[in-house]
Structure formats: C-alpha cells, structure tokens
Design goal:
- The protein is mostly beta strands.
- The protein contains twelve helices and 104 strands.
- The strands form 26 sheets. Strands 49, 50, 51, 53, 54 and 55 form a six-stranded antiparallel sheet that branches.
- The model is unreliable at 1-11, 31-140, 293-304, 527-542, 1239-1246 and 1248-1252 (pLDDT under 50).
Length: 1519
C-alpha cells in the first residue's frame, strides 16, 4: 500500500480517537454535575481503579491500530497518543482566588468538617486494611504502568482481513475476561461491605417553654459504626464539661441529646453529625425556647433549681436594689443595675450575667457597656438613641438555673433645632446586600412635627471618610429604599432624615457597616461553618469559561411603589468561571418594544431598582446575562406590573381602653389593626383632659396590643389614642379612650411567707410569719390564721383560728392538744380583699418549751425611710420568760455582710418599742433584728426585717410647724399625691393618741394639720404622721423644750402684731419744687388710720399740707408746695389698725435740709422758665449716616410770633446770609446743617449742561469752628441755648464724624487690572483729616513705586503693581474712629490669591496684545477719485510689534504685485501701492490688511476712476 494511503488511514484513526476522547470528556463532565466527588485522605483506592480503567482503554486502542513499518512517523504518533491519552498530567491546583482580570483577590481555604482527633481514631481503626491495600496498590500500579508504557510504543504493520477479524474476536474475549476479573476484585474487596452513614430517623425541631427538659433523638445506620457528635450553632457540645446542662446517650443505633432546664439561650440550631471512613452525614433540628414574657410587670421569674454536680451545691440567687423604669433623652447616658447575691459562695466561680433588650441578647458596642464587679451588675447605655428604648432584662445564670428581672427604659427625643420639624427616624437597617445594591429600611418616628412627614432622605457614607452623599433626589414616602451604585468591595454606613413643611429632622443613628459584595463571596470569607471531617472537597475548574451565559430564572418584582420597582432573579446555572453581569429591559404592556434600562453599565447583583416609571402604567420586565463572551438570551418576561403602591397604609386600631396601674402609669390596651401587612408596630399618645397637646408614650413602636404608659402626672385625667405604622406610613389615630384618672390600682395582696413556730407550751403555740412581698397598693389591714392536724400522711381540713383580723405578724394559738402535730397557714387582708393562703408551715408538734429568757419581739416594721436614717418599730414578745421584759437591743447590718456583720444600733437598753437608726449610707440595703431582755438575760432575736433600701421616696415631705396670724401653733404634714381611700394617722411617741384634749386634727386637701390646743411641757415628745395605703409615706417631728419656747415667742408676736411697711418714709421733689413725703404699707385692713406728725405736732389738712391715704395700694402721701426755714425737723406717720400699730419717720435738718431747699427752688425756677418759649433739648450736635454734621435743639411752648435767632461767634445769622440757608425747622426741632452746599446765585452762574459738576463741599472744615447760640423770644419771656464748637467741642464733632465714616466702610474687595491687584473699601464720605493706614501681615505698608495707597472719591484703595508671591497674606485697612479705630481685613491667599493673580495675568496679556496689535494708523483716505489714465500712489502708516505682515486686497481679493500693481513695505512702517495708468476696471473697494500674532486690521478705502468726456456725453444724453 502506498504512503498516501497509510497517511489517510492514520488521519482517520486519529480523528476517530479524538471523537472518542471528546465523548468521554462530555460524559465525565455530566457525571461531575450530577454528584460531588469526595476523595479520602488515603486515596489509593480511587487511584487504583482509575489506573485500571485507563490501562484497559489503552490496551483496546492499541489492538485496533494498523501495523506499518514506517519508522519516520513513530515520533509524531507518540505525540498524538500522548495528547489523546486518558492519563494527562494534571496541573497542581492553585489556592489563589482571582477575578476576571486574573488579579489575586484572596485565597480558597479547604473546608474541614470534623476535628483531627476523630479522624485520627477512625484511621487507626483501619490501619491493617490500609497496609494490605497499600501492597496491592503497588503491585497493580507496576502492572498497569508497564501496560501503559507498552501502549505508548506504537507499531504500524499491515494486516489482512482474516487477521483483523481474529484479533477483534480476541479483543472481545479479553474484554470479557477483564470484566469478570473486575467483578471478582469487587467481591473480594472488603470495602464493598462498608457504606457511609445514613439517618433513618432524623431529629425533629421543637418549641418549648423555659424551664422544660427536652430530648433530641435520631437513628443512624452505617459501617463501620459511625461516630456521633452534637453541635449547637456549629459549636461542638461537650456534655462532660457541662453535665448539668447536657446528657448524650447512644444505645445501639439510637442516639439522644438531652437539654435540661431550657432557657432562652438554648434557642439554636442543633446539628447531629455521623462520621465514618466512608463519609459523613448531618441533620439539623431547630429548638425554640419561649419565655413567660410579661413585659410590664417588674417581677422575678423563678426557675426550677437544679443540683450542680460540678460544685456539689444548689445555688440560690437573690436580686436586690432593682432598677426601676428608667427615662433618658437622646444623647444622654443611662445606667441601670442590680445587686446580685449568690449563695453559697464558691471559690473561683462567678455566675454569668446576660442583658437583653426586648428578648434579644445585648452585645458590647460603643453604645452598650456592661459591668459585673463585686455584687453589682450594671448596664450603661451611652449616647442614647430611640433604638435603645425597650424592655431590659437582666438574667443571672448559675449552674443550678437562672433568675431574671426586667424593667422598661424610655428614651425621649432630643430638642429639635427648628420648631415644627419632625424628630429623627430610627432603627436604620440594611438588607439584601449585593455587589452594588442594598435595601435600606427604617422606622418612622413617633412625632411628625407641626405638619405630616412628606418623605425621607437616605444618606450614605463610605467607611473611612466623613463625606455623606444623598442617595435620593426626591423624598420617599416608604420606610425602605433600594440604594444602587455601590462600589464592590467597599464598606458603607447609612442614615435617614425626615422632611415636613417646617424642615428636615436630625439624622438617625447610623446603620451597621455593610460591605458591597456577592453574598456567596461573603459566606466564603466568613470561613467554614462545619468542622473538619478528614475529607477534602475538590472543585473542578469551570469548563464554561469563555461561553456566553445562560438566561436568568425566576425574574419577579419584589417591591413596587409609586417611586420605584425592584426586580430580583436567580443567576443562570451556566455562568462561566469569570462571573456574569446583567442588563435589564422593560416593555410597556400592550407593545412588543423592549427598551434596555441600564445601557451604560451592566449591574453585578441579581437585584435592580427601576426609577422614573410612570405611575399607573403597566410594564413587563426581563433580564439578560452578559460576560466577556457576549450577551445571553433574555429571561422569561414578568407579568404585567402596574406602577403604584403595593403596600397600603394600615387601618386604624380599635379604641384603646385605659386602666389604672400605679400612681404614675396606666395600662393601655386596644384591638389590633385589621388586614394590615408588614406591621411595624404601634405608637401610643396621651393628652391631659382640657388641653390639645398630645404627648407620645413610646418613641419606639411596639407590636403587642397592650402597653404600660409611664411618666404620667398623678391625679390628672388623661385620654389615650393609638396609631399603627408600617413601611407605607402611619394609620389614622384611633378614637380617643375614655378619660381616666391617673391613680394607683388596688389589688389583693400576695400571700404571707415563712410561717414558722416562735414559742410553744403545753397547749399553746406562738406562730410567726413574714409580711406579703406585695401589699396590692394598699396597706395590709390584718391577717387570718388557719390550722389543721397531721397524722402521718393524713391531714385534716383547714380551720379558722381568729375571726377578727390580726394586726401583728404573730399569733398565740391556745387550747391545743399536747403532743399533737399541727400545720398553719396565714392569709393577708387589705381593702381589696383577702389573699390566698400561704405555703403551709412544716409539721409542728405542740410540746413544752422551758425558756427563762423572753421570746423574740414581733411585728417589726419600718417608717420614715430616708437616705441616711429610718425608724424601726416593733411589739413586745408574746412570751416574756420568767420575768417581765425590761429593754430591747436593735441590731442591723448591710445585706451584703455576712453573719458576723451585725452591728448594735445602741449600747444601753432601749425601753421603748421604737428607735431611729441614723448614719446609714444612701442607696444601701439593710436588714434589722430586735432582741428583748429580762432579768434572766437577752432572748433570741426576732425575725429579720428587710432588706430595706436606704433611699428617700421621691417627693417626700417632712412635718413642719406653722404659727398663724392668731398665734395658733400647729404641725402640718403634706402629701399632694394622696388618693382616695388614704388617711392621715397621727401618733405621739409612735403610739395612738388617746387624749384628744391636747391636739385637734384638721384634714385638708392633700395635707393634715395637728393644732395644739394649749401648748405646754406636757406636749413634748415625738409626733408622727402616716398616710395609709401609700407604701409607707410618713414623717415625724420631735418637739423639744427649746422648740416649744421659740414657738411660744412667735405666737406672741402674731398675737400682738406690728404693721409692716414695704419701705420706710421717703421724700421726693416734684414739679414747681413741690415736696412729697410718702410710704407704703405692706399689710393692713380697711380700718387702718393714719396720723401725720411734725415735731410732735399733729398736722391737719390745709393750704400748706395736703394728705392722702390710698387703701387700694397702701400708699400714704403728704405734699408741701415749698420748703421754708421753719420746716426743719422730723416728719412721722403713725398707723393704727386694730391691735396692730406702726410708725415711720424722716428727719430733715442741717445740710441735708439746705440742699433739699435749694433743689426745690431750682425746680420752681425751671417750671417758671417753661411757662414761655424754652428749650426741651439744648443745642447739641449729631452726625447722620450720610456724614452730615447737624446742630440740633428741640423747643417747646412756641407761638407764631416767637422769634428764633441764631448766632455764630456773637454775630447773628440774617436771612440774606449764606449760612441762613443751612437753617431748617421741622416741627419743634431746629437744625443747622453745617456741611450743606449753598450756591450764591448772584455771583456764580449755574453750570451748563455739558459742564462738569461742581466739586462737593466738605461736610465740615476749620471755617466752621466757632460758638453757636440760639435765642427764643416773645411776650412771655426768652430762653437761650449755646454750643461751643471750639477746641474740645470741635474735636468731639470730628471724632464722631470719623466714627461714622469708619463704620460705614465696606469689606475689602479685590480687583485685578493689567498693572496689578487693587484692594479697595468704600465709605460714605471721606474727610482729609481722617487717618487711614494700610497693613500687610500686621505691619504698616510703606508707599513705593510698586505699592501705593490713596483715596478716589469715597473709595480707599491700595494698588499692588506687578504682584509676586511675597504679596500674599493678610491685608487690613485701619480707619481712625476717634478711639481704637475700625479695621477691615482680607486674606489674600489661597483661592482668593490664585483667582486675582490669574485675572491680573489675563488682563496684562490682553493689554500687551492690544498695545502690540497690528494696526493701520493713518495715511489712507476714505475715497480716492482719479481720472482715467493717470497713476495712483497711496501710502499707509502701519504699526505692530512684531512687525506685521502687509497685504492689499481689492474687492476682498488679495492683490499680487505685477507690472501694473507695485506693492511696497518699507522700514516696517510704510506700506504703499502704485497703479500705473488706471482704468475704470481699477475702481472698487481696496483694503490695506496688516497682521501679526496679536491681531489683524484692515484700512479700507474706495477708488473711483472717471473719464470727463464720457461723463459729459452721458449728461447730454440725459438732457
């Protein structure tokens, strides 16, 4: 066979092999897409099977080859076989992550799914099998490598048809043999018996209440037997380390996880993982733990206690000093906390304290700080925002359980900067973060301001910068907005402001930082969430790189409003290794025209917000994918979407119902809004009846339909309303509730506690108990005791012991049977009813006690709690012992102190049953106990009272003593917040007052008065007053002998009073020199009488004296027309008003009388002067804003014939004088305008119209210096006024003028010219005597050729010629104003300097250009008339620097020099044209055109050629 035939056969064979290889590759790729390949760390099994398949494929290929002897083509065939071999060399996998531009952006981290110890244990269990399989693997590798090497040696030989058929049959037989051998290997391989874990029963999710115990269980199959691990939120659960919380059991294939005493922190995703050498399987179950959540009651939720096996004890937690409902304002700092006592104390163990807001655990942040030191747990909220409002819960978690305490924290809005604007929005959050897109949401504020909110603005700021950019040009009404245009990989924060007609609110608190990136990249960067399993997951390179991506799927509209529409879709399955971007297209419904929305830039995220759509129109949308390979097919179009709000405003809630809670709070409940979507919550407002002001109760919306409104004013009547809010806005406010009075609600008290035995006799037992923890808002009025007998485990029915309520916390039960076992229970009673029975006491046996000392005092209670003191009261013990009680000892200690911390409040015995303990520390809790003493000794202590917090009740008032006008002494105690059902109870020495003859009790509104009927030493003692049902509101007053004497003195003064004066007698001068003596009485009756006395002589009404007593004002007056010498002496007013008297005097003698007499005479003379024409204001000067100098005076009592004469330097100013025209009279004001310009008509001709105006006359000059006088005369008299405008007067006028000029100066302005920069300031007027100084950098500027200062008109200027960098800096002009001067400054630097200097350079360049521009400066006529046949010579003068280029044109066409046209340009100045023998054709418009780099100019002229003979012939023909 020829060589061409052989080559053809080889090409066919190579093409056949290539097609086979491509089919295998496609099959392999499909297999990879359907399942994930996991390769074990000991991957010899996979390698062994892979080599086997490859060698078998190679052997089949080898047998089909044609054998030839052409050795020259062997090398070429080897290269082809290597390229088609199924054993290619795979490049080492890189762990660098690159982007589309092949830039390294990160690392690909292998995901490990179990810990190393577990995998090591599994590997060791398989050690023997691994060793055996390793030997087999080496043998098989040698075999198949040899076969592969032989396959590479290609032999080409010629075969016949028979040989080919035989070899084909052999190949079929060999294939069968190999298949049988492979099946045998599989059966003999022990790995076929193994299989990965499989969960036949999966754990189920549970929802349970706190305190319950739950079990998660599953059933797992697999071989080898899988190892089971439990995870909580992907964190391995160590049951051995936390045996008190978790128990893990495995029985055969059943596996359990038990969670004991569930609490809120146990809410999590629990995952069970089963692992063996064949693989791993896991399943997740979610556990939700609900709380018994009563947000408004400040109670401790006690949970079941568990024994801590780790420490061998059961922990008991006590929470003291609990925080109350707190109030703060935005920007302030609030701290709340409690004292926590955990018993017993274990060394190196401290319980956990977790804080929650609205059930969500708080994390440390710049705004949240927690502290747990000593026994105090504190939460500090810095820079409060409305997001911080809510129910705060403190949870103390021990090994035995947990205790909680909750209270609400309210955050009020900060004061707005502009009245009427809304307050700031709140709770700004970011959702659906992608590469260039994020959705920002927020909550509307509670207060809209003076008008409804029109919309919101969203601002963004890139982290690391301070620049805030507004995201929306027009305000949006919805409380959510899609922000586009983010830069991938950058971090942003957002804030929101609200807008109404009054303005824009303050910005909200910024959102949390978000990074613009793909969610899948974010999940990868967050790291693996599953533990390592010992298996590595390989991801093949995407074979679709360079392929146009497919179409997106599930395109839908997620949001639609009037302002925008948001599209979302899923990326295509085939999108290539480089990633995809998207184009969005829209189409108006009813048409087939699709328009691309984002034509300039494709988006990277599978989200897009479309703006600028027409409201009410319907659209369809679709999306296309694109990458570097091209744009893919469009997705399926959405349905018709109408642009408009999809979310409606919520409906109005039902009418709220208000009910009483405490004295400053009300419980408000309402019916929820109907058919509301995406409810954000409710805002509650209240208004005091009688006002139209609505005040928000909460500044953060609440979702429940019940809310406690705090910070109300007690004893006020309020109404409430509620409005709902969602992203679309506010609903209409509900109907206002019925008016309700703010007052504490009264309820049945809780049951008493701690019923125990105090003493026992043969047939008598003394039982004691503790007061209820909550009295229900009213004082406990008494107790009822029940009993029952106990025999073994059999108990009888409860029987009542007392029919009348007990007032003490102990009771002596009599007529019992000795050696019988009894149980007791106690019920408390207040005005609302009787409580439930207490927990029964332990079984008590009635036996004889042989005690000689007294029992413990009973009935301990506390009154008058203050910051540093309180009063402890008790009752004598029920058992005195062998002798009567003769005294008591009171002990106290801080709650935190141990048993050794008891301190005696006194050293000697106290015989009374009360004692005031002083010297306590404020805000500290104490406990108290009392011991009784008799002759036998000191008995056992009483029950412990407390803990009691040493803290004064807000608004606490003390008893004060009052003495009225009649001298009656009384004690007063006030309680403004007193409500109905409360009473004042007075006592003396803390005992009920039985003798009513000493005191009279009078009850008034909000206060009680105890009046002493006859104060004496018998009344000495401690008087106290208690307000019932007011939680211990009480006070006391100790009346000592010293106090009694002081009060009796005050009472005497009130019984015999003195009339008080507002002021003592005074004197004043009036018109005509009249003298007025006067005083004013502070308090008097209508019967008050006045006696006027002068030197012990009673004065009477007459010509000289005029008396007056105005009883409406209490003013007493006496008038005298003048003072004479005989009037020296003492003037006295004596007053008598019933039993009250008073007197006031004034002494006028000596020099004081003389001065007063002269002043009276002067006032008389002044009055006489004013009877004729006179000056109301004397002549003085004033300077107007226009710097006119005026002399003015005001006259009064003028007539028509009153003469007004002006004088200057004793020379009168006549009507014909020039100065007379400066005089003006306007009403009663006379004016002399010194600076008025007067033109003498008889000597100066008026200026012509084209003449320049005359220069202005100075406002004032040296010629105006002199003494000016004005006289007023008529038949009633005359008056004179004088003004000296010389020396000091002239200087005063000039200084005032300078002041007005200086203050009229404008700020310095900058002007650039071709020569330099000019700084100028304009004034209203400039006077040459005024000092003007220019400063540069605070140094005075010296005039030079380059820098000059001057004045032009009313402009002060400083010229800087040819400015340089040295001229930069601060300039100032200082104008003298008579004192320190007025300074105007200008900073000539930075942008101001650059702009001025740039303008100077432009003007300078323009001036140079204008100066050196090419020009025709003369020599050419406008018209040249020349006779035909003559020669024309014209020369034009030319200027320009550089020398211009010269050309001549005729009828706008350039002339070229020839024999007829001689064009010359000489000396760079003279351009000439000569035309020899002109003809009529030479007529036309000529121009001399000069040109250089600064410009072009043409000197035009007209040449007219005429023929006299022809012209005459034409004229004759016309005739």
């Amino acid at each position: 066979m020829s060589g061409s035939v052989q080559v053809s056969q080889k090409e066919q064979q190579l093409q056949h092999r290539k097609e086979q290889h491509q089919k295998e590759l496609r099959h392999h790729q499909r297999h990879q897409q359907q399942q994930q390949h996991h390769y074990e760390s000991s991957s010899h099994l996979s390698a062994k099977s892979s080599v086997s398949k490859q060698s078998f494929s190679t052997s089949k290929t080898t047998t089909r080859r044609v054998k030839t002897t052409v050795k020259s083509e062997k090398k070429e065939l080897e290269q082809v076989v290597k390229s088609l071999s199924p054993l290619p060399k795979r490049a080492r996998r890189t762990y660098l992550a690159t982007d589309l531009d092949k830039d390294v952006i990160g690392y690909v981290i292998p995901i490990f799914r179990a810990n190393h110890e577990e995998v090591r244990g599994l590997m060791e269990a398989r050690e023997d099998d691994v060793t055996e399989e390793g030997i087999n693997y080496v043998a098989m590798r040698s075999l198949f490598v040899r076969e592969a090497r032989e396959a590479m040696e290609v032999r080409v030989e010629k075969k016949s048809r028979t040989t080919e058929i035989r070899e084909s049959a052999e190949r079929v037989q060999l294939s069968r043999t190999l298949d049988e051998w492979t099946e045998f290997r599989k059966k003999m391989n022990p790995d076929c018996l193994m299989h990965p874990p499989e969960m036949t029963t999966k754990p189920r999710g549970l929802t349970v209440w706190e305190g319950e115990t739950i079990r998660l269980h599953c059933t797992v199959a697999g071989w080898p037997r899988p190892r089971i691990a439990w995870y909580k939120n992907n964190v391995l659960i160590d049951a051995k380390a936390h045996s008190e919380k978790y128990t893990v059991e495995s029985t055969y294939n059943m596996h359990y996880l038990e969670i004991k005493n569930c609490d809120f922190l146990d809410t999590a995703a629990y995952r069970v993982s089963a692992l063996n050498v064949k693989g791993e399987m896991s399943c997740v179950a979610t556990v939700v733990v609900k709380r018994f959540h009563d947000e408004e009651r400040e109670t401790i939720v006690s949970q079941p206690r568990g024994f801590s096996s780790e420490h061998g004890v059961t922990f008991q937690t006590t929470i003291l000093d609990k925080f109350n409902v707190a109030f703060g304002r935005e920007g302030e700092t609030v701290s709340i906390g409690c004292t926590i006592i955990v018993y017993p104390t274990v060394k190196n163990y401290k319980p956990d304290v977790v804080w929650y807001r609205n059930g969500v655990p708080l994390k440390a942040s710049p705004w949240v700080h927690t502290q747990w030191a000593g026994q105090r747990a504190t939460l500090t909220l810095t820079h409060l925002n409305k997001e911080d409002e809510g129910m705060y819960t403190m949870r103390v978690v021990t090994k035995s359980g947990y205790d909680t305490y909750s209270a609400y924290v309210f955050v009020n809005d900060a004061d707005v900067e502009v009245e009427g604007v809304p307050v700031a929005p709140l709770d700004v959050r970011c959702h659906d973060v992608n590469k260039d897109y994020v959705v920002v949401t927020w909550k509307q504020p509670a207060v809209e301001g003076s008008s409804p909110i029109l919309g919101y603005y969203v601002d963004r700021c890139e982290v690391g910068t301070q620049h805030w950019a507004q995201c929306n040009d027009t305000p949006v009404r919805y409380a959510r907005f899609p922000v586009t245009g983010l830069v991938e990989g950058r971090s942003y924060v957002f804030r929101v402001t609200a807008l109404n007609k009054a303005g824009v609110s303050r910005a909200s608190r910024i959102s949390e930082t978000v990074v613009a990136m793909d969610p899948f990249d974010r999940a990868r960067l967050l790291g693996p969430s599953a533990p390592w399993t010992g298996m590595i997951k390989f991801t093949e390179e995407d074979h679709t790189a360079g392929v146009v991506p497919g179409e997106p799927t599930e395109v839908e509209v997620t949001e639609a409003t009037k302002s925008y529409v948001v599209l979302a879709w899923k990326p295509p399955v085939q999108r290539g290794h480089e990633g995809v971007m998207y184009y969005i297209e829209k189409c108006v419904s009813g048409s087939d025209t699709w328009q691309r929305v984002n034509t300039s830039m494709p988006v990277k995220s599978p989200r897009f917000a479309l703006f600028d759509l027409c409201e009410g129109k319907s659209y369809r949308f679709r999306v296309r994918c694109c990458n570097s390979a091209g744009v893919g097919e469009a997705s399926e179009a959405t349905g018709d979407i109408t642009v408009g709000d999809l979310l409606d405003l919520p409906s109005s809630p039902g009418m709220p119902v208000a009910s009483r809670n405490t004295s400053t709070s009300m419980v408000v409940s309402w019916a929820a809004s109907k058919d509301v979507k995406n409810l954000v919550g409710y805002y509650i407002d209240y208004s005091v009846v009688g006002t139209d002001v609505w005040i928000p109760c909460n500044n953060k919306p609440v979702k429940q339909t019940r809310f406690v409104c705090h910070a109300l004013t007690s004893e006020t009547t309020c109404v409430f309303r509620v409005k709902a809010v969602n992203a679309a806005g506010y609903s209409l406010s509900s109907t206002a509730s019925l008016p309700e009075l703010v007052r504490a609600a009264v309820s049945v008290p809780t049951a008493p506690t701690d019923v125990h035995l105090l003493e026992a006799h043969r047939d008598t037992m003394v039982v004691g108990w503790s007061e209820p923890t909550n009295n229900g808002g009213a004082d406990v009025r008494g107790y009822f005791v029940d009993y029952r007998t106990v025999k073994g485990r059999v108990v009888s029915k409860w029987n009542e012991l007392n029919l009348q309520a007990l007032t003490t916390t102990s009771y002596k039960v009599e007529n019992l049977k000795e050696n019988v076992v009894y149980e007791f229970q106690v019920r408390a009673m207040n005005m609302a009813g009787v409580s439930d029975g207490s927990v029964p006491s332990v079984a008590l046996k009635c036996n004889e006690w042989t005690l000689t000392v007294p029992g413990g005092p009973v009935g301990l209670h506390v009154l008058e709690i203050r910051d540093s003191s309180m009063v402890i009261l008790w009752e004598p013990p029920l058992f005195d012992g062998r002798s009567p009680v003769n005294g008591y000892y009171l002990d106290f200690k801080e709650v935190s102190a141990g048993d050794e911390g008891w301190t005696a409040a006194h050293e000697e015995t106290n015989e009374s049953t009360f004692m005031k303990v002083s010297g306590l520390q404020a805000a500290t809790s104490y406990v108290f106990r009392v011991r009784a003493q008799n002759l036998a000794g000191v008995g056992n202590p009483s029950e412990v009272l407390g803990p009691i917090l040493a803290e004064s009740r807000p608004g606490t008032k003390e008893i004060y003593v009052d003495v009225d006008d009649d001298g009656v002494i009384s004690m007063v105690f006030e309680c403004p917040e007193m409500s109905e059902g409360c009473e004042f109870v007075w006592s003396k020495n803390y005992q009920a007052i039985t003798d009513t003859s000493r005191l009279t009790i009078v009850k008034e509104k909000g206060r009680s008065r105890a009046i002493f009927n006859n104060p004496s030493l018998e009344d000495l003692g401690i008087f106290s007053c208690v307000v019932t049902n007011m939680e211990g509101v009480s006070s006391s007053y100790q009346l000592t002998e010293e106090d009694l004497m002081r009060l009796l003195d005050i009472s005497h003064d009130h019984k015999f009073p003195v009339i008080p004066f507002v002021n003592e007698m005074a004197m004043e001068l009036q018109e005509k020199g009249r003298v007025r003596f006067w005083t004013q009485v502070e308090k008097f009756s209508k019967d008050c009488q006045v006696e006027y006395v002068f030197n012990d002589t009673i004065l009477q009404q007459g010509d000289k004296y005029n008396m007056k007593f105005d009883k409406t004002t209490g003013i007493i007056e006496m008038f005298m027309d003048s003072l004479e010498v005989t009037d020296q002496g003492t003037f006295t007013f004596n007053l008598v008003d019933g039993k009250a008297k008073g007197a006031t005097s004034l002494v006028l003698i000596g020099e004081e009388f003389t001065a007063l007499q002269k002043k009276s005479q002067f006032e008389r003379a002044e009055w006489l002067r004013k009877q004729g024409p006179h000056f109301v204001k004397y002549l003085d000067f004033t300077i107007t804003s226009q710097c006119d100098v005026l002399l003015r005076c005001t006259v009064g009592n003028m007539k028509a014939d009153t003469q007004i004469i002006w004088y200057k330097d004793s020379l009168s100013i006549g009507e014909r004088d020039e100065a007379a025209k400066k005089l003006e009279k306007e009403g009663d004001v006379l004016t002399f305008n010194i600076g008025k310009w007067v033109i003498k008509q008889d000597t100066i001709e008026p200026p012509a119209e084209d003449a320049s105006p005359l220069p202005p006359r100075p406002k004032i000059s040296k010629n105006d210096v002199g003494i000016y006088e004005v006289y007023l005369r008529d038949d009633r008299g005359q008056d004179k006024s004088r003004f000296d405008m010389t020396n000091e007067g002239y200087h005063a006028v000039m200084n005032e003028l300078f002041r007005v000029i200086a203050n009229s100066s404008t700020q310095i302005q900058v002007t650039s010219t071709e020569h330099g920069i000019i700084l100028s300031s304009d004034v209203t007027y400039y006077h040459e005597e005024q000092s003007i100084n220019w400063l540069h950098k605070d140094a005075k500027i010296t005039a030079s050729e380059r820098v000059k200062a001057g004045v032009t008109g009313e402009q002060l200027w400083l010229k800087i010629n040819e400015p340089t960098e040295k001229d930069k800096g601060r300039y100032a002009v200082n104008l003298f104003d008579g004192k320190d001067g007025v300074k105007r400054m200008f900073e000539l630097s930075g942008q101001a300097w650059e702009e001025a200097f740039e303008e100077f350079q432009k003007l300078k360049a323009a001036a140079i250009a204008e100066r050196n521009r090419a020009r025709v400066i003369g020599g050419l006529p406008d018209v040249v008339a020349i006779q035909e046949g003559k020669s024309l010579n014209l020369t034009g003068n030319v200027w320009g620097e550089p020398t211009p280029e010269v050309s001549w044109t005729k009828n706008e066409r350039e002339l070229v020099a020839d024999k007829r046209y001689v064009l010359k340009f000489e000396h760079g100045k003279y351009a000439s044209i000569a035309i020899d023998t002109v003809t009529r054709a030479d007529s036309g418009k000529y121009a001399l055109v000069v040109r250089n780099k600064y410009g072009t100019e043409a000197g035009q002229f007209t040449v007219s050629v005429y023929n006299p003979e022809e012209d005459e012939t034409v004229e004759e023909e016309k005739k």
